[in-house]
Amino acid sequence: MRQIPLAALVLGLAGLIPFLWGATNVAYPPSLGWVGGWLQPMYRGTYVSLTYGMVILSFMSGVLWGFAAKARGAKAALGYALSVVPALWGFFMVNGDPGNAAVNLFAGFAGLLMLDWFFVQQGLAPSWWMRLRVLLTAVVLACLAVPILVE
Predict the structure, then answer these.
(1) Which residues cross the membrane (predicted)?
(2) Closest CA to 64 of 50, 76, 51
(3) pLDDT confidence of residue 57
């Protein structure tokens, strides 16, 4: 298995910041005061995790679409169909009550990891992909577990 390219690793880890921030706000409410009054409420607590999580599910749909574009025929058609699932899951399932939305977002990221594995098994994703995705997904799921368990 090849090493994860440094740029992909650094950017992936940086992409965890909003999830970590949201989990910190829920687990340690005084952290909400660390940014003063300039940060809008939607960028704090559970809401930042939910909003950003939706963005990332949609982004990952685009990534998977790119993997599907490397295939041909029925394999490509299946890849394209599966690639839209994370974005559609987020759109239809991550809404309403923040607690339920967090549970559904958690499920969406767990499902996304299964899709990542599928694309690797099809030879459409890079050899290092699962190493990166397991690392990032583990942190995302831990962060999303905070509002599910605490609130």
Answers:
(1) 46-65, 77-95, 101-120, 132-150
(2) 76
(3) 97
pLDDT at residue 2 tops 80: no
Record the pTM. 0.93
Q: Can you list the pairs that 51-56 forms with residues at least 24 positions away whose Cβ atoms lie under 8 Å?
A: 52/18, 52/19, 52/22, 53/19, 53/90, 53/94, 53/105, 53/108, 53/109, 53/140, 53/144, 54/90, 54/91, 54/94, 54/105, 56/15, 56/140
- For 125, the token pair is 């994703």
How sure is the predictor about 37, in pLDDT bands with cuts at 50, 70 and 90? confident
Side chain identity at 110, as an amino acid letter?
Answer: A
Alpha carbon distance 140, 142 (integer Å): 5
CB contact set of 15 (below 8 Å; sequence gap of 6+): 56, 136
Contacts of 60 (CB under 8 A, 6+ apart): 86, 112
